[in-house]
Specification:
Helix 4 (75-83) packs parallel to helix 5 (100-109), helix 6 runs parallel beside helix 7 and helix 8 (194-207) runs parallel beside helix 9. It is built from twelve helices and 18 strands. Helix 5 (100-109) links the parallel strand 4 and strand 5 (112-115). It folds into two domains: 26-269, TIM Barrel; 270-397, Lyase, Ornithine Decarboxylase, Chain A, domain 1 (Beta Barrel), CATH 2.40.37. The relative contact order is 0.15. The chain is of the alpha/beta class. The strands form two sheets. Strands 1, 11, 12, 13, 14, 15, 16, 17 and 18 form a nine-stranded mixed beta sheet that branches. An eight-stranded parallel β-barrel has the order 2-3-4-5-6-8-9-10, surrounded by four helices. The protein has helices spanning 7-17, 26-39, 57-65, 75-83, 100-109, 118-128, 166-176, 194-207, 236-254, 266-269, 302-306, 393-397; strands at 21-25, 45-50, 69-72, 91-94, 112-115, 134-139, 161-162, 180-184, 216-218, 259-262, 273-284, 289-293, 312-314, 322-328, 336-344, 351-354, 375-380, 383-388. Bound molecules: ligand LLP.
Length: 404
């Protein structure tokens, strides 16, 4: 099992499959899952991979093979999970803002559902009464996460049912005898501070006596992964220790045996992914030396959308002298991957690799500017697998209807 992909391997993959190219190291995903398992070994915890971060069916199957569960954010993701062989009881659908029909479909699949609005909770109660255990997503008024765009627990967030509406929740539960099996809170992505999860645990602590049929307490996802060289991620061992202590207290106090659920996306797949691009042009102006690569925010939107930092390596000239560059994409609008970034001297034709690109990279890609989505390759136990072909021209027209 190799946790890193060497520059030579990346160069060979680029030569074989062309660029831009997403490469995923399945062994790294395995390792991340095992780290979680190890840290939480004394805890009644279940992990659900937040598959919105990376849905290639082969990745999903790999994750299933590890014994991990899966969290979905649309009915189509749930269907992909079924296709990837997940047992319905290991699939969770944490819905937001969806039509009730999707919840009905989810129930039809027999999967776990977290409901995030009073209106859907009411419809659910009317239709299923006590017959189908369900979780509720709560809005706790906690500001957390790497930046505002990926913060979901604060008081201006659309997610979950605000805690202030607890009475309305309880009224519905009583009126329709709804079987509340779980409480769910996801406060954001890139949460470094373990205390945030414990704040949520404290809230759950207060709520538990109100829901006698609770089975699981779902603390969501959002573990931080290090994007910059000297950054550290969420201290998983510390988190496990604190969660274990809280769970023991909770179980003792209420004489129960709760499960703790987590929904990691980035933690499982971010570091497994490398995105290889080729330098098309180098251009200077007064402000910068621009390195124009054969990709753009249509393939990796995180820098433009979240000001996210991805470490970039010039694997074609790793010993070259360091210079500062603006690394830009070829989309016909401002499309900056990195500004004033020290890199080994870059020449046209060099391969630039974006690290930590496994999560929300390909997945948020588009055909903007009528460019092709990149190919995806998975490395697993020494084998190379092409898991998605690069688009071809016909793909751009696939659903268009020519009315002439
Ligand atoms: N559970 C729920 C309900 C979520 O909404 C999310 C992410 C997760 C779990 C997984 O969060 P993670 O462990 O991956 O941080 N596209 C953004 C991240 C958006 C996250 C959306 N929800 C980015 O690239 O930074």
């Amino acid at each position: 099992m190799s946790l890193t992909i060497s520059n030579n391997q990346l160069t060979a993959l680029a030569a074989n499959f062309g660029t831009p190219l997403y490469v995923y190291n399945a062994d790294k995903i395995t390792d991340q899952y095992q780290l979680l398992q190890h840290a939480f070994k004394g805890v009644n915890a279940k992990f659900f991979f937040a598959c919105k971060s990376l849905t290639n069916i082969n990745i999903l199957k790999h994750i299933r093979s590890l014994g991990c569960n899966i969290d979905c954010s649309s009915i189509n993701e749930a269907k992909l999970a079924v296709l990837a062989g997940f047992n319905p009881s290991n699939i969770l659908y944490t819905s937001n803002g969806i039509a009730f029909e999707e919840i009905e479909e989810a129930v039809g699949l027999g999967i776990n559902v977290n409901i995030d609005s009073l209106s859907n909770l009411e419809k659910f109660g009317k239709k299923y009464g006590h017959g189908y255990p369900v979780g509720i997503r709560l809005l706790p008024n906690i500001m957390a996460g790497g930046n505002l765009k990926i913060s979901t627990g604060h008081d201006k967030s659309k997610f979950g049912i605000p805690l202030e509406q607890l009475d309305s929740i309880l009224n519905l539960v009583k009126q329709y005898q709804i079987n509340i099996a779980g409480l769910h809170v996801h406060t954001g992505s890139e949460i470094k501070d373990v205390a945030v999860f414990m704040q949520v645990a404290d809230i759950f602590f207060e709520l538990v006596p109100l829901f006698p049929e609770l089975v699981f307490l779902d603390l969501g996802g959002g573990f931080k992964v290090p994007y910059k060289e000297n950054e550290t991620g969420t201290d998983i061992a510390l988190l496990a220790e604190k969660v274990q202590a809280a769970l023991i207290r909770l179980n003792e106090q209420y004489g129960r045996n709760f499960q703790v659920w987590f929904e990691p996306g980035k933690y499982l797949v971010s570091e497994s992914g490398s995105f290889i691009t080729t330098v098309n042009v180098i251009k200077k102006n007064k402000a910068a030396i621009f390195v124009g690569v054969n990709s753009g925010f249509n393939h990796l939107i995180r820098p433009m959308f979240y000001d996210a930092y991805h470490k970039i390596d010039n694997i074609s000239n790793p010993e070259g002298p360091i210079q500062h560059y603006a690394v830009v994409g070829n989309i016909c609008e401002t499309d900056t991957f990195a500004w004033d970034r020290p890199l080994n001297e870059v020449r046209e034709g060099d391969l630039l690799v974006f690290n930590n690109a496994g999560a929300y990279g390909f997945e948020m890609g588009s055909n903007y500017n009528s460019r092709f989505l990149p190919a995806q390759v998975m490395l697993k136990e020494g084998q190379v697998h092409l898991i998605r072909k690069r688009d071809v021209f016909e793909d751009l027209l696939r659903n268009q209807i020519n009315i002439d």
